[in-house]
Design brief:
The structure holds two protein chains of two kinds. Helices cover 27% and strands 21% of the residues of chain A. Chain A is an alpha/beta fold. Chain A has a seven-stranded mixed sheet with strand order 4-3-2-1-5-6-7. Chain B is an alpha/beta fold. Chain B is built from 16 helices and 19 strands. In chain B, the strands form five sheets. Chain B has a five-stranded parallel sheet with strand order 5-4-3-6-7. Chain B has a five-stranded parallel sheet with strand order 17-16-15-18-19. In chain B, helix 13 packs across helix 15. Chain B is globular, with a radius of gyration of 21 Å. Classes of the chains: A alpha/beta, B alpha/beta. At the A-B interface, helix 3 and helix 7 of A face helix 2, helix 3, helix 5 and helix 11 of B.
């Protein structure tokens, strides 16, 4: 199996550090005995706030979550990964990840893409300016280069706005790749 | 003796180490509970596999079991289904299960050591992040996710990238009011929640050597709260005295052989670590968390910190969010904060020594009016031993509820939860938002401080009562 080569799609910016797995999927959801059906529980408590990023228009179509450092710290619950996947996310870009969350992501096929703090800050800025932008995580290129390769493509809507001037369709965003993101190219072994 | 404890255990368990890929490690003990295992058992069954080593696999029920009304059917149908699944899975695969009602049932990290199953030099895994507890015995023990649980069930091995080796050296001596909980909260404060990511911590130094096994388990238990993969302490005479005579401990000549082997595990004097931090035990004071991660703590003598004093914008933003959630303001004295609930229990502080420390404080006193106070022993055996010492009477006479064993209000899966907005003093390990129930506010403390706080109604030291 070729594994995951490239993920391209809308992104949700969650500018918080130390997002723990209790927030990603609250414990009340852990009674399920399946790997599916967790999407409604994703960030369950935070989603009660109508302004939460996952409640914004277009978030339901997002494939990439961008977050602060130490994403997925805390509990070993793989349900956190399943919840992100069930919702539609295929990759999380963050400066660092909780170790167990990262292993769980690789096992389940969610790409934990580690970028530098700086690169993630730039991603947040780009997404703040253009929430409809497409983020491309090039897993295959990252694995061969040993550095995360991701790009932000400005949305068509923004690109037509004169205030943004000349359209730069590709803003390169380079950062450190974790050893594990290479493993995302291989399927889970069990 | 040269080399590090961590490397010695790692090397002994290496099945394969293909270049450029994670190593394949042999697993000596796999602990299983009801919440993170059903999908794993389903996975091996769909693949037509069996549990490879049921004799090295042990299951119990802890995460969503009720702690009252054990003579009644389980009221929560989802929890009942999860527990029924565990029974079926264990019966179908020949895995020993310490079920509800058994004297050996309890929190998975309390029963492993109690049975003598956790021994120096072993690799121990479980689908639970607090598996790091077992590192107190000089084992390499860490939490895994459900896909990894499935892998271990099927193969008794695990693919792992070798973590870095970090040393946390605690010099000096813990003061009389200090416990292992205060020590580990102090270490995590120094380390930060992500400070240990990618590392296995070896705790060393005079203050660590002086800890009992229960105290060592408390310290290793919370390694994950500093982000570490695992925590470990080299085995010594304290370890051996704890293990001698336990049900699964080696006996007779095998015990002597085991001791020789275990003594060879300690890290040599000249060994170097990828990173080392030093903590002065004599500078610590009893710890109370104020925020929504375990690194956000101060001492009981302090006030709530001002987010503007934080070193980075991200930390400041996190502190502001935490204070808003916790409904606290900078400058407020910790001792002025009153609580609605007190929880004594969990894999961090639910062992007999913890209950003794709390009982000593509440003996002859009363819980402050309006406070709901709960004691949940870490295992059925801990409960029985505590009752044999009369500890349950001290608690119930004071107004505590005396419950049966389980994870209970540590993660609030079984209905033992805070109401929205309620504030607890808790001996558990996580003060995350909503951890003890949606909208609940958790302050992590030691058993002695939790007990004193129950009596006073606000954060208090036993000596101040």
């Amino acid at each position: 199996m070729p594994g995951i080569q490239r993920i391209a799609g809308r992104a949700v910016a969650l500018d918080r550090r130390d997002v723990d797995t209790d927030q990603i999927i609250p414990a009340s959801w852990l009674k399920r005995v399946e790997r599916t059906g967790f999407a409604p529980g994703l960030f369950g408590a935070w989603r009660e706030d109508p302004d939460f990023v996952l409640n914004r228009p277009g978030a339901a179509e997002a494939k990439v979550l961008v977050a602060g450092s130490n994403f997925g710290c805390g509990s070993s619950r793989e349900h956190a990964v399943w919840a992100l996947q069930n919702f539609g996310f295929q990759a999380v870009v963050a400066p660092s990840f909780g170790d167990i969350f990262r292993n769980n992501s690789v096992a389940a096929g969610l790409v934990p893409a580690a970028a530098t703090e700086d690169a993630v800050t730039r991603l947040f800025a780009a997404l703040a300016a253009d929430p409809d932008a497409e983020v491309v995580v090039d897993v295959a290129a990252s694995a061969s280069r040993g550095a995360l390769t991701c790009q932000v493509r400005r949305s068509a809507r923004r690109a037509t706005r004169p205030s943004f001037g000349k359209v730069r369709p590709r803003t390169a965003c380079m950062g450190r790749t974790p050893r594990r993101s290479r493993r995302a190219t291989s399927p889970r072994e069990t | 003796m040269t080399g590090r404890l961590f490397d010695k255990i790692w090397d002994r368990h290496l099945v394969a180490s293909p270049p450029g890929e994670p190593a394949l490690l042999y697993i000596d003990l796999h602990l299983v509970h009801e919440v993170t295992s059903p999908q794993a058992f389903e996975g091996i069954e769909l693949a037509g596999r069996k549990v490879r080593r049921p004799d090295l696999t042990l299951a119990t029920m802890d995460h969503d079991v009720p702690t009252i009304g054990l003579d009644q059917p389980i009221a929560d149908p989802l929890a009942a289904e999860q527990i029924a699944r565990l029974r079926r899975n264990c019966a179908g695969h020949g895995v020993t299960l310490h079920a509800l009602g058994s004297i050996e049932q309890g929190i998975v990290h309390v029963i492993g050591p109690q049975l003598g199953l956790t021994q120096p030099g072993m690799t121990v895994v479980c689908g639970d992040s607090h598996t790091s507890t077992h590192g107190a015995f000089g084992t390499l023990a860490f939490g895994i996710g459900t896909s990894e649980v499935e892998h271990v069930l099927a193969t008794q091995t695990l693919r792992q990238v070798k973590p870095a080796a970090m040393a946390v050296t605690v010099d000096g001596e813990l003061g009389p009011e200090l416990t292992a909980k205060d020590l580990v909260l102090g270490i995590i404060r120094a380390l930060g929640t992500g400070g240990g990511v990618g590392s296995v911590i070896e705790y060393r130094g005079a203050a660590v050597r002086a800890l009992s096994m229960q105290g060592r388990m408390t310290v290793c238990n919370m390694s994950i709260e500093g982000g570490a993969r695992a925590g470990m302490i080299a085995p010594d005479d304290t370890t051996f005295a704890y293990l001698e005579g336990r049900h699964h401990s080696p006996k007779g000549k095998l015990w002597e052989q085991a001791l020789d082997d275990w003594r060879s595990l300690a890290t040599g004097d000249g060994a170097e670590f990828d990173r080392e931090i030093r903590v002065d035990a004599s500078a610590l004071r009893p710890a109370v968390t104020w925020g929504t991660n375990p690194a956000q703590s101060v001492t009981i003598d302090d006030a709530i910190p001002d987010p503007s004093s934080m070193s980075t914008p991200a930390l400041r933003q996190a502190a502001e969010r935490a204070l808003a959630y916790m409904d606290l303001s900078p400058g407020m004295a910790i001792r002025d904060i009153s609580v609605d609930a007190v929880f004594i229990g969990s894999c961090t502080n639910g062992r007999l020594e913890d209950l003794r420390a709390a009982a000593e404080v509440v003996r002859g006193r009363k819980v402050s009016p309006g406070i709901r106070a709960l004691v949940v022993p870490g295992s059925a055996r801990v409960k029985a031993e505590a009752e044999a010492e009369g500890l349950d009477k001290y608690f119930t006479d004071a107004g505590f509820e005396w419950r049966s064993a389980g994870c209970s209000m540590c993660l609030g899966m079984n209905g033992d939860i805070l109401a929205p907005g309620e504030r607890s003093a808790s001996t558990s390990n996580r003060n995350f938002e909503g951890r003890q129930g949606p909208g609940g506010r958790t302050h992590l403390v030691s058993p002695a401080v939790a007990a004193a706080t129950a009596v006073a109604g606000r954060f208090t030291l036993p000596g101040d009562l």
